[in-house]
Amino acid sequence: MIRLPGFIDPHVHVREPGQTHKEDWDTATQAALAGGVTMILAMPNTQPPVFDAHTLDLALNAAQQKARCDYAQFVGAGPDNADLLPALASKAAGLKMYLDSTFGELRLDDMTLWMPHFKNYPRADPIVLHSESRTMAAGILFAAIYDRPVHIAHISLKEEVLLIKAAKERGLKVTCEVCPHHLFLSREDIPAISDGHPGRGEVRPRLATKEDVDALWKNMDVIDCFATDHAPHTLTEKDSDNPPPGFPGLETLLPLLFTAVEHRRLSLDDLVQKSVVNPRKIFNLPDQPETWVEVDENAEYEIKASEQFTRCGWTPFEGWKVKGRLRKVVLRGKTAFEEGIVLAEAGAGKNIRK
Ligand SMILES: [Zn+2]
Predict the structure, then answer these.
(1) What are the residue ranges of helices labelled H in 96-189?
(2) The predicted structure's pLDDT at residue 103
(3) Alpha carbon separation from 27 to 30, 50, 57, 90, 337 (Å, rounded)
(4) For the whole model, what pTM was predicted?
(5) Cα-to-centroid distance, 299 and ligand 1 (Å)
(6) Ligand 1: centre distance to CA 42 (Å)
(7) Interval between CA 13 and ligand 1 midpoint (Å)
(8) pLDDT tens-digit readout, 47-59
(9) What is the 147 CA–ligand 1 centroid distance (Å)?
(10) Backbone φ, ψ for residue 63 (5° rounding)
(11) Tens of pLDDT along 255-284?
């Protein structure tokens, strides 16, 4: 049995408020614990989005009642909330900016709308960018101009990892995360995931080429964090004419990465750095005392959606054979998960920004 610190997932879509048929604070945090994750940072593109004091309270109240692991909630940058967000910064995980096309209230149509956020948001608090390809380059330029750190969400392309490498070598304050699905899946896997339903292969950023995937592995030292971008949608929605993009990922994070350790593609030390040590540093997260996970490194099993806690009821990794089974999670001295059963009660999770 291997004992590791509890994982931190800095990129989770909890779906509450507004879309609790997909997931809520209860099921998302059960899925987290079942994946060895003891702290999640929740994204703000809910319905309504979390973008002012009222909507932040709405999300945090739901979390306080239902969360079974520790958490913090991001606020979202919109076209006209740059003046009011700094006052909320101490209560938020950080500021999330959607620089590529997004719908609704978090839409930032041009760069003049980025400026006040970079200028006003407290310098010591994290800014996370959804920015793909050349938009990412623009985001890094903003970080340089405003001389403040930025964290790039879910990189997936060779050009992205190479540009971040160059930016780091130049001394720019940029960090980044990668999702397991961009490390273990490429475009070539879409037919198998889809199984006749093309919507199931839809995710943003899209699954990339084999060459992109290889470049991420080759430049693993450039990558600061692993993050799931857990984005649950029901199968009915995924199989509809207008399928929403996104994969669930919380419960497959640990077994996939552990299997990579087993195959010597990743060291155990690297796994802990990118799942615990670096996210803690980048997002100013507190230590979780008496918190650990126990993994049976020799146990082999098959990933099955039917055994998962996420409400969405499917996984793009259905049937994958993995090695390394999570046996136990202890959160602040209490057993929170053991042998497939979530033991932490709703409301046991702590808001780490409180
Ligand atoms: Zn996301």
Answers:
(1) 115-120, 134-145, 158-169, 180-184
(2) 67
(3) 5, 19, 20, 26, 14
(4) 0.97
(5) 31
(6) 9
(7) 6
(8) 999 999 999 999 9
(9) 25
(10) -65, -45
(11) 999 999 999 999 999 999 999 999 999 999
- Using the mean position of ligand 1's atoms as its centre, give its distance from the Cα of residue 333 in Å: 31
Give distance in angstroms: CA of 223 to centre of ligand 1.
17
The answer to whether 302 touches 259, Cβ cutoff 8 Å, is no
Q: Which residue has the tokens 């991001």?
A: 74
Residues with Cβ within 8 Å of residue 74, at least 6 apart in sequence: 41, 42, 43, 44, 50, 92, 93, 94, 95, 96, 128
What pLDDT does 352 receive? 98
Q: Would you call the peptide bond into 149 cis, given omega within 30 degrees of 0 as the criterion? A: no
Amino acid at 172: L
Q: Which residues fall within 8 angstroms of residue 64, CB to CB, at 6 or more apart?
A: 347, 351
CA–centroid distance, residue 46 to ligand 1 (Å)? 11
Q: How far is CA 2 from each of CA 39, 208, 270, 274, 334, rounded to the nearest angstrom?
A: 20, 33, 15, 17, 18
- CA 349–ligand 1 middle distance (angstroms): 22
Side-by-side strand order, sheet with 37-42 = 7-12, 37-42, 70-73
